[in-house]
# Entry
Amino acid sequence: MATFLYKLGRLAFRRRHFVALIWVALLTLAGVGAASAPPAGTTSFSIPGTEAQKAFDLLEQRFPGQSADGATARVVFKAPSGEKMTDAGNKATVEKTVDELADGSEVASVADPYTGKAVSKDGTIAYASVRYDVSGMELEESTKHALEDAAEQARESGLTVEVGGDALQAVPETGATEIIGIAVAAVVLVITFGSLVAAGLPLLTALIGVGIGVSSITALASALELGSTTSILAMMIGLAVGIDYALFIVSRYRAELAEGRAREDAAGRAVGTAGSAVVFAGLTVVIALVGLAVVNIPMLTKMGIAAAGTVAIAVLIALTMIPALLGYAGRRVKPAGAKGGLLGRRRGGEKTEPKMDAGPAKANLGTRWASFVVRRPLAVLLLGVIGLGAAAIPASDLELGLPDDGSQPTSTTQRRAYDLLSDGFGPGFNGPLVVVVDAKGSDSPKDAFTQVSDEIKGLDGVVAVTPPAPNKGGDTATISVIPDSKPSSVQTEDLVHAIRDAGGDIKADTGAETLVTGSTAMNIDVSEKLNDALLPYLVLVVGLAFLLLIVVFRSILVPLKAALGFLLSVMAALGAVVAVFQWGWLSGLMGVEETGPVMSMMPIFMVGVVFGLAMDYEVFLVTRMREAYVHGEKPSQAVVTGFKHGARVVTAAAVIMMAVFAGFIGSSESMVKMIGFGLAIAVFFDAFVVRMALVPAVLALLGKKAWWLPKWLDRALPNVDVEGEGLRTADERGSDPDEDRELVRT
# Structure
């Protein structure tokens, strides 16, 4: 592979005009497609194989025209102190508001609070339910404005009016902190390279790659039903890996220049060596993201595939556009050790050149740290494991759920409406359960409906049960159940299971099938489905990546160590997420206004994304160690050499990735905020504790055993030559690697 990539790098360097033109054309094409594409429509959130989804599909079939997936809004009214909503003036205001809401072109129905018994027992709070023909993301802006205007006019009469539901659902905003993250990345790159030109290359290529990826997602959003979170995730991961991959190749290019190579040859060798690591690091990320398909939640699958496509673009750009831009940059990108144009001028304008004959260079921080770890491997190993174990302790209290209006900031009208409904009607009112009774196979559907209703009334944790509402055919009915606990509580989950258990006995007696759905039941089913899929997903992703790393490192123990280190870092990161978002530690600093259950897809999502990113640092750092070992150094010295060449760059890459992810903590969407924090802290644990401390400690303890591989497996595995041994062998023979097609087995 090194030889092939070497040729590709030299070709891109020589044909830089052509390469740059291709990528600019692709960016333009994707941008035009995004600009001309219709706006994204509804994002279907389905969870095949669950009872909640089965009931939802049955509702659409048996109750046609009721827009089961249409947007809803609850306009909540609260009377001024000392008044009631049944007072004549307040009642007139509410009825006027209901009439105004019913005039909307996209409104399917509006329920009057006074005819629908939607007034609290103390008479101080009432609500009007509005149902629309289309989903929240498809609502026209004029419809949303009409809803807001109606609420504002009602407020002018002295009432407190808030609007809940998904009708006012907005596209998540990431905020200014995302820009700050990119700015931090720019500063780190300038410090790393000492040159604005060299620092600008990774930023430029990463932005082009993300531009192509996100524009393509936007262009296809309507056709493929891609949600707004899909493009945010692709941007988050694409920026991070795009900068990192380019950073490694530019850094290797400067190292090759420092060895006296011509610029074209240096570009080819940088792509042949660091580029090989980029390919395999990118493959691990792609495997982890595409592997999300095993969960069988279409939305999660689409998010994973879209992000994986952006990562693939980042790899291709790093392999082709970086050497092309290096050709344009020419002498403005200096060899490693030489000062760039930004930092390398003396007062008189004279440039400082590297002193090649100044004697042995002072050991850098990476070399000194690796030497310390090699001398004290056991102490470093124990300290790192104990520290990560302590950080992981909160994960034992992990509670899973999906965000609702109760997790919104208190400044939003949705959250205030949620709180008013909880005060007036009880905490369970915000998460009613919809029980669907399919009596098509029953001899007496009406009796079956009554029996189900009576059975539910006798269960613990039930506040109210509405009378069965049959369809026109009389073979199916819906029953609304109000729990006495909030939607995200364990008590509500137990009630859902109790209703389903009771449904088994009812079916045996009447032949009618009882199904539980609604947003609360959906959330419960999603959490359970994700929990059930976590272990198979972990086995699949880690297993495939383990096999891939065996090929890369030609070792059994190094990939095993990499996988175990990942488990430590992801558990520690989950512990940090629980501490902040569930326990409330540092919640004010993170902008978390409401603590609660951790998003149910967070564990499996972090396993996928963090594993792929963790393997990035493993590949980049350990390949330099293996390269030194293959070239004849002792195992302990190879560890130090790997850190000498790779620690500074890996550190810069980790800081950049943390800055990019942390930038999304400012998002208005709680899910994006949690993902940004989780990935940022996971990168910190994995890069600075696992890869920088535990990896060299374990390799020092293992010695030569770390690189052991059974002879039969060594013969069976393909030789991908990540270390560039084929290039080195050709160099020693004095031949041109571009003409040398032989791959030397390490």
